[in-house]
Amino acid sequence: MGKNEVMVDEIPFPSQFMMTTKPLPLMGHGITDIEIHFLQIKFTAIGVYLDPEIVTHLQQWKGKSGAELIENDEFFEAIVNAPVDKFLRVVVIKEIKGSQYGVQLESAVRDRLAEVDKYEEEEEEALEKIVEFFQSKYFKKDSVVTYSFPATSGNVKISFATEGKEDSEIEVQNANVAGEIKKWYLGGSRGLSPTTISSLANTLSAELSK
């Protein structure tokens, strides 16, 4: 394993990613999993790449430990809302149909938008576009889904890569949907992956204390 890689549950993640002209370092990583009858089933490994500029938007939490930050949903809200480039890399551990993943994402985002009264026709159309994108995909082990959230817009670019197939991507131009996808992965106590949230809190705590 080179120093340019970080192993996340035996899956190599680049230690940085070029989203535009600036390298984004890997600031958090973890897995999604469930436990059934004391057996852990792992679904995906996750890497969160953030522009280091993000610390300038998190100064009010300077001096807090990772353990304190994990409990603080306002801190994660600030991460989600900070106007910096963000990139998520999700690698498949357990094979599933893309349609299953798409429906899972759709229902999580739809429910969250409905809670805050932001689920309108435009959001429904944006989510339908995402579900359609994943519908025909098959998530073989080591397939990669990425989400690019540019600082300059409220859009999200979603890409899918799997062995033996051409990469495909879509751009979703709906800030409400893009925002809730960010929260699905980065949203503190309601985030999809507690291990990723914990890793992010510890890394940013260290960055803030520099």
TrEMBL record:
GO terms for molecular function: intramolecular lyase activity. Residues 19-206 form the Chalcone isomerase domain. It comes from the Eukaryota. InterPro entries: Chalcone_isomerase, Chalcone_isomerase_3-sand, Chalcone_isomerase_bundle_sf, Chalcone_isomerase_sf, CHI3-like. Pfam families: Chalcone. PANTHER family: CHALCONE--FLAVANONE ISOMERASE 3-RELATED, CHALCONE--FLAVONONE ISOMERASE 3-RELATED. Belongs to the chalcone isomerase family. This is Chalcone-flavonone isomerase family protein. It comes from Petunia hybrida.
